[in-house]
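User: Quick sanity check before I run a bigger batch. Here is a single chain. Can you write out its predicted 3D structure?
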Amino acid sequence: MHQELRLHGHIDDSIEYYVTVAAHQAEGCHFYERDDEVLRIFSPGNEVRLDRTGLRHWGNGGTFCEYMYGIDQPLPDLLKREVKNRLVMYGASYRDNGELEFCDDTSERIPYDTIFEEGHAISNCFFFVTGSIYGALKTQQEGLLCLLGKVLKRTPYVAANDDARLVDELFGLLGHKSHFYLIRLLNKKHQAYAELFRNLYFKYRTIPDEEYENLTVLAQRLGISDHQQKRIRIAVMYAHRDNRMVVDEYRDILVDCHLRGTISRQENARLTRLKTLATRNKIPPALFDPLEENLKYDKLVDQEQDYIAETREILSGLLLNRLRLDQAITRDDMVRLLEAKRLAMNNRDYLFDQILLETSKACDEMVFAGADVASVEKLSSIIDYFEHYERSVTEINNLAFMVGVRIEEPVLRGLQRSCKALDRLDQGLFDRLLFKDLLSNKFLGFYGRRKVLILRQALRQGWSVDAMIDALQNVSRDENLYGRLLGIVKEQLRIKYARAVTWQDRSALRDEVAAILVCQDGEKEPFPEQIFYDVMVNVEKEFFYLQELLPRIIRDSDIALREDFLINSGLDRFYIEELENSYLLRHGLDERVLSAVRKGTDGRD
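Assistant: Done. Predicted structure follows.
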């Protein structure tokens, strides 16, 4: 049975340290020395010094931390789902063939800024050992990696900041006469910023401008760089349970695709659906960027090759037809490129952007060699059209799938400009590119569809921005009210009523809901009768589905029954999936019992 000694203190107003020493007879262990400038943690042959500006180490050991979502993660670790932590052994480096090698020179000085930049932004650990290993330093390092490496890469106690359990887990792997030394450094300023952002994000998801201003002021006062702010925000957003589930599933699919070197139609459809789900649930696109940058795949399904070949053919005109540059890319060619861009985005085909990048580099090289700069100007015009399309896709998807999205004048003016720019190429092009696929999306909900149809009509008929804002805000208010009424009604039914509600009960329930809204808002404005009616009808559909249909669907894997309900009920498909997930969790069922049925009804085959 081992004992532990702990030392806790502060270097300054930024850096806090926790030192833990574990041994079978730790009570007589003298392991530190402190003066005004330096804290030394030492054992025979090993030492770590903490001063005002950084850390210096000698001897064996290394540093580890939780992988912070969004930082560079080596591909081998990214491909292993169980790997959670970053581990760097002193004196270790990789040869050209990828093999790890050690040397006897393990001493290094590391500034605190570097520690929290290269590792975790908030918490990083350092360790060394005596008594278990012997020989030259590189031999000791190889031995420590064999003894502790696997556990250090996978243990959850690093992220939990649970040093007692972490030391227990690691010390059990060492010899009887061993001493284990752990130093954890915390960046208090980064931690304060992360806590405020976590509170705001978990409360609002879309943080109000006035609250975000408080966050900005805190970052400026604490002197936190923009890069570190972004890392912390991404890590906090990933930690949200709803975000993590979607992003992890997205990662798992990309990992499987990477390992096989190809992607199936089912996986492609699933990735697209997850991105749509992410938009609807206000999951930031930035959470997908690290995965897509590291796990790109080149081989796509056969039918995706036609538009790629067409794109390559059209863009090659910039390079081949130098003497007639104005005719190299025609208006019809630009329309075809935009159609190809739409297919590439729908299919998550990175080859399209790769071709564009290659063309851009070739144009730059031509100009550098003395060719007319008109080729670069023409390419810039093409990219401008792509940007009109991409921005419009983002803004319209936000409007369609996000509940409570802000209706902002600059966004609507930008959509008007993009619509005019694309329609100058071909009348009705904006409508074909932006609305055709969206309105056929099975996951587009009732209020999202209303907003999309209003926007479509407004752009077609040239409404003023004020008229667009009024119409869209009216739908958003109905959408928010529907969500509030649904939550209140379901809670009241759970507390006071049986599942079968009579018409007399409905009248009483309506009065109770009105009273609750008055309590919450302090206003006595009556809510529209139609919205309350829709809520009650949909609640009855929900109860019927959970009580009568879903058990049969699970028992018989009845794809047709589920699809019939989804089509005829009018309920939001995302909402149905949330109900199904809650049902499975409540009854202790594995999600896989519904996976085949969902694939069949959601068009994922």
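The first strand starts at residue 3 and ends at 10.

User: Great, the batch can go ahead then.
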